[in-house]
Amino acid sequence: MMSSPFVEIAPFSFDRISPSSSPSPSDGVDGGEAVGVTFVILVAIVLFLAILIITVVYFYCGNVARRAIEGAPPVSQLPHYAVQVWEGDVSSMEKFLQEVAKEKLVRFTAQQLSAFTSNYSTRFGSGGFGVVYKGQFPNGVKIAVKVLERSSARAVGDQFMAEVGTIGKIYHINLVRLYGFCYDKFMSALVYEFMENGSLDKYLFKEKEMIEWEKLYEIAIGTAKGIAYLHEECQERIIHYDIKPANVLLDANLFPKVADFGLAKLCNRDLSHVSNTGYRGTPGYSAPEFLLKNHPITYKCDVYSFGMVLFEIIGRRRNTVITSSESLDWFPKHVWEKYEKGELAEMTKTCEIEDKDRGKAERMSMVALWCVQDSPQVRPTMSAVVKMLEGGVDIMPPPKPFRYLFSIGMNSLKPPATATGSSFTLSEENNSYWYKDTTPIMTKYEIQMASC
Q: Which residue ranges form the domains of the chain, and what is each CATH number?
């Protein structure tokens, strides 16, 4: 029989390879090639398993490190007022911008804030709550990052998260907008919109920076509207406690926005007052009730502080000045003396206010005198302040303020008695004590409403 020209090769099997066996010369060249292929396959499997293990370990360690830095439980376990951490990849950046556009609060990590501020290289200001740094988002939007002083107590962390959740729901054209926050084991920070022109104080107290007085009047009205919103339109009434020119920020168009609201303890709208647990605010702007131990502090303390700001806008100077003879020149007392003598118009001239603005300056002076009344009950609400500043109403003559300077005590903060000797009572719905409504026609022809 004739033999076939092809060599028949049996199918390869892993059974042929064992630790105790090796190919013999009789197996031929084809057997050696099969062993080589098997070796390559085994090496590939080992490399694949090694890479898989390294990848799993890498992601596990990275996740543990990230959670340690955040100092917070997994997102599924966060309280209802917390928001998910924003991750820094491209797709998440788009999502973040959408969240900002929807006015939703964003939670940042400490690393992200460090990147936004170029490792906190530009310090923009500081205050009682912390230090402010200038920064910007990757899309070029400028921001202000306020790094807060904090306590390590757990309760403080819970309070911080709750208050940030409340502040994040507040939107008003005259309030600085909060974009987001950071809270971890090492730092607490708030991320605000950036205000190009800084704070009002540099325009009032520095000769190089000047704003026309008419614009200052508009700034005063806008500031009053922002405070009125905090007091009267938020679900939870917010007392600022530190109204002053440094907390009135101006954007690129010199539009005013109140800053640092909500950083003090929140006051529920249903409560008439909060107990004073320590001095708050800035000396020179704080209401006299802060000087009395255990005296209830109401939202009217902000009204007093705003009145002090109005005095500084009128004079474009600090209220308290030490003269060359080392005597005290206190501008609010000077305004009252001029008002009492009927010389407010003369005072506006000494303040170098132009003729076209003097009527508004006199109006602002009367509003300021109402705001700084000793008794919180006598001070107007901020919505009434807005009405009086905007015009269209006749401002009633204010009582004499600053009685507390001569008699610090509970009696100095009690409302004055009426003409009949009865105690003074006032409802917030009735603003007739501070002003009376008028119409353009009545104003034109100097018609007054009859009083019963």
A: 78-193 (3.30.200.20), 201-415+428-444 (1.10.510.10)
